[in-house]
Design goal:
mainly alpha, two-stranded parallel ribbon
């Protein structure tokens, strides 16, 4: 069972500082496959990204990561869950790979996800992986690279 609150964007904080310059820089990255936001803890990265999400026309799938998500099976289960929570119907073609216990499932999950995005004709979507710096497993980094390289335009 997945923890649904991991898919929820943080509530807007009325005390948050407006940062139009940073939001403009993020807007300039529209159409790029990957944007990273890095800064020390407490500098408002999550708040900034949350404010940016409010300006997006495309659906936004949010996933708040934690230390426990540094396992490829768990990581991809939550990524797929975030997308299903936001814009994709549940697809057995993806879950079939998530349920397999071996290492091949990981490549299958990403490939099935890419194929599903194409089949569903998802023109645009934004996937936020909040606190991705907690992910250290090189297999996950390779799979994210594969998704970025081979995902639909």
């Amino acid at each position: 069972m997945l923890l649904a609150t991991k898919f929820m964007r943080p509530a807007a904080d009325p005390r948050a500082v407006d940062r139009p310059r940073l939001l403009a820089r993020m807007a300039a990255s529209a159409g790029k496959r990957l944007t990273t936001i890095t800064a020390p803890a407490g500098y408002g990265k999550t708040t900034l990204v949350n404010q940016w999400c409010e300006q997006q026309a495309a659906p936004v799938a949010w996933l708040s990561l934690d230390d426990h998500d540094d396992d490829p099976g768990r990581f991809w289960t939550y990524v797929v869950g975030a997308l299903e929570h936001t814009l994709l119907p549940r697809r057995d073609s993806i879950h079939r790979f998530l349920d397999e216990p071996d290492e091949q499932r990981l490549e299958g999950v990403v490939t099935a996800l890419i194929n599903t995005l194409i089949e569903e004709r998802i023109d645009a979507c934004v996937v936020i992986l909040d606190d991705y710096h907690l992910i250290q497993d090189p297999r996950i980094h390779r799979q994210i690279t594969f998704l970025i390289d081979h995902g639909p335009p």
